[in-house]
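Quick one - first record:
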Amino acid sequence: MTIRKALTIAGSDTSGGAGIQADLKTFQERDVYGMTALTTIVTMDPDNGWSHGVHPIPLATVQEQLHTVLDGIGIDAVKTGMLGSVELIELVSETIRSRKLPNVVVDPVMICKGNDEALHPETGSAMRELLLPVTDIVTPNLFEAAQLSGRPPIATLDDMKEAAKLIHETGVRYVLIKGGAKLEYPTAVDLLYDGSSYELFEEDRLTTGYTHGAGCTYSAAIAAELAKGASIREAVGTAKAFITKAIQYGFPINRFVGPTLHSAYRHHA
């Protein structure tokens, strides 16, 4: 058996529900060997309302991690998560471009769940100018799509379509905007745009507060399917089903937060 390999370049969620922890769990569930280049360590304070602390990894250490994986092992797909500085985006973008890395999935993480503002607003332009042109598919939620497209808040499907067009103009091959619970639409709908046509991926809406790590998990599932040879549309379809089950069976880990259940698709599909 030849197992495909995927790299996640992302932050570490100490609580285990998001970031590289979610990515590695997803890779394992989708039969892909997962590797990491850690960019940030995110901690949570249980004595202060679960407030987040963000602790960047030195750029040189990120470079050494990339050297370990890319030169020492090799990959079939790569996904990015939290890239907290312009310098880090420059490093990752140049690595993807110069090495012609395959199957690039960008989850444009701009906030920690529970926060309302972008962690580093200046990284939005760096993503648009440097990272998206070397990306196969970008997977923003409504907030991130508004940031990347320069639009006001997105509330409708027509808003999503307009934002997808603007994001696609950066040079990214595919744009997948995730509707989420805040969209004015009867189903949980995500919009895929390839520059010429739109495709909707719909599931029943779920009423739950246990969605921590959902975006990381969704993009990691897409990367895993691409690593195994699926098309973009096939990968999104499988990942949509995977994350829907993960959210449906989400659970609380304390009084502050509840993650998705990464094994739910295997047990309940």
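second record:
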Amino acid sequence: MGDTGQATTRRRFRSVRARTTLGAGAVVLAALVVGAVAFVLVLRSVLLDGVRATAEAGLEQVSSQVEADGVGVVAGYEDVLVQVVGAGGTVLAHGEDTDGVVLPTDDESRWSHDGERWLLVADGVDLPSGDEGTLVYGASLEQADTAVRTAVVLLAVGVPVLVLVLVGVTWVVTGRSLRPVERMRTEVETIRAARPDARVDVPDTGDEVARLATTMNGMLDRLDRAAASQRRFVSDASHELRSPIASIRQHAEVARAHPDRSDVGALAAVVRSEAVRLQELVTGLLELSRLDEGGLATRRAVDLDDLALDAVARARSASQDDDGERSGVRVDGSGIGAARVLGDERVLAGVVRNLVDNAVRHARSRVAVALVAQDGAAVLTVDDDGAGVPEDARERVFERFVRLDEARSRDAGGAGLGLAIVRDAVRAHGGHVSVTVSPLGGARFVVRMALGD
């Protein structure tokens, strides 16, 4: 119980509210202490100057009287110290308050008598007898000392009270200012997967707290979209991976149950075909994972025309060697011009290859690949004479595991990740990819990226 209380106290003193209050109190206390000390010193100096001026004026007045009327005139002075001292240090005359004492004859000094402090000033005086003496005059410091003591007491009481008031006001104001932040923290803490659409309330203050709430809601929106996309991606990936695995398992179980009827060659062909599909899926998923993490391994100058020519040569070779839909598709690369971009060569090669493979897969007889440098950008176009992409599906075609022709076989349709990889890879390079109608009658995919040095 004690440890819990100590931990709570430590957390409270580590809070922004406590640190702000203590910091403000410490700064103001230091400033007030310095100001109070300076004030007392200045006040003391001013009062002392006033007493000194009074004493010097009195000294001059008494000196004139002594030189005119003799030393006896000092006997009638009260409430001040007046004394005439001869050359040998003998007291020749004195006022009523200096009976029986000898005052210092320094030019200026402070002297205490009967618990009272005096400021003494002295100067030479010509006596009527022709001798020279020293006239000492003293003014009381009692009023000055009283004023200084009063100021010290008032400041000693007033400064702590003022600091306490400031600390209290700072504590209350800071607490009220941070209350919306604490409310937002509580609201965010209560957001769970069951309420992914929950958001924090934005106060109508228009200050930093309101902007923080708006930014936090934007962050929650992005996290919600990312989580939804991740859930959809995992669901689609699970579905795609389950199909080839189920096919392999089914053929294997049939071969095991009826070994006399099974054809090893047919079984091997099925396993190989489904394994290729699995490999494509895993490769695509890994590539998308790297792109999601911003994974461009390197950025250097890449000749995009070389990658386009390689993709065209590869597509021509595949068209000649394979049977089925790819047979007879002519791939034209005559429109490929020189263009250099800054990026990851491996990722860019995958972009061009996926676009060309996609075009060959959907073309009837012709694919055209072109690359030009235009307005500071490298523009890659891939055309085919296939069925094209409907206008309402031109954004959806870049989503993961999307196949517009659901009726076609998965072997012909691919894994549904190629165009998603293209979009994410082009975005990672600061470019843009879109699909329009091709002059050949099918689809035209256009990739635009900034030229590199």
